[in-house]
Specification:
Blueprint: H1 3-37, H2 40-71, H3 75-108, H4 119-140, H5 143-173, H6 178-210
Length: 224
């Protein structure tokens, strides 16, 4: 494979990674919409659609591994391919969290009229913004933007702490809503993890561009 063809293959991989990110973003939006509307059909679509996200991830992995095996890339090219592999996993896990929210929506159903905590849509909005910006930082090789994404995670953590306090308070005041409120805790957990994964993508961008891990002096996080 000549250099021009190899460069084109790398560009195509990056473009497909962005497509995977758009699929994940759509899943998060739909999951939250289903939760707010108590739309069971929409929630089911999110759960069923996770298979497509998984398939896209494995497709990207196969193409990346094939290029590594056949082209034996060095230096920045190898970092690019390894970054594609890493980010594809992060995006797939974010899709899993969206699927989890869809499943929670189906479990809660519409039997108990519990209002969704206001911090949850805020967390979702911030997580999606972080996802978009982390992928833009990849496309533009923009470490300043990547660091901004990293710093944004603190705001999500503040919202997460706030929603947990509010949910526990609501449990005490309205015991009949405890079960539904517990499920909202899991939604908050999933949204907080989505932001963590976007932060990990930003960290990977910094490594790709500089060869060093970064992120405003913070340590890389392990997410589940």
């Amino acid at each position: 494979m000549v250099r021009a063809d190899f460069d084109r293959s790398l560009e195509e991989l990056q473009a497909e990674l962005v497509v995977l990110g758009e699929m994940v973003e759509a899943a998060i939006l739909k999951a939250m919409d289903a939760l707010e509307r108590r739309d069971m059909a929409m929630a089911y679509e999110v759960v069923a659609g996770d298979d497509l996200i998984d398939e896209k991830r494995f497709e990207l992995e196969e193409k990346s591994i094939d290029l590594i095996a056949t082209q034996q890339p060095l230096a920045i090219d190898l970092r690019t391919l390894l970054s594609v592999l890493h980010i594809a996993v992060e995006l797939e896990r974010m899709g899993d969290y969206a699927e989890g929210i869809g499943k929670i929506c189906m479990i809660i159903g519409d039997d108990v009229p519990v209002e969704i905590p206001k911090q949850l849509p805020q967390m979702a909005k911030m997580g999606i913004t972080m996802l978009r910006r982390s992928l833009k930082s990849l496309v533009d090789r923009d470490t300043v933007l990547a660091n901004d994404v990293w710093d944004s995670d603190d705001e999500v953590d503040v919202l997460y702490d706030g929603v947990c306090r509010q949910i526990f308070l609501d449990m005490g005041q309205h015991p009949h809503t405890i079960e539904a409120a517990t499920h909202f805790l899991w939604v908050a957990h999933d949204l907080e993890r989505i932001a963590d994964r976007a932060t990990n993508i930003a960290e990977r961008v910094i490594f790709l561009v500089t060869g060093r891990s970064g992120g405003s002096g913070k340590h890389h996080r392990e997410t589940q």
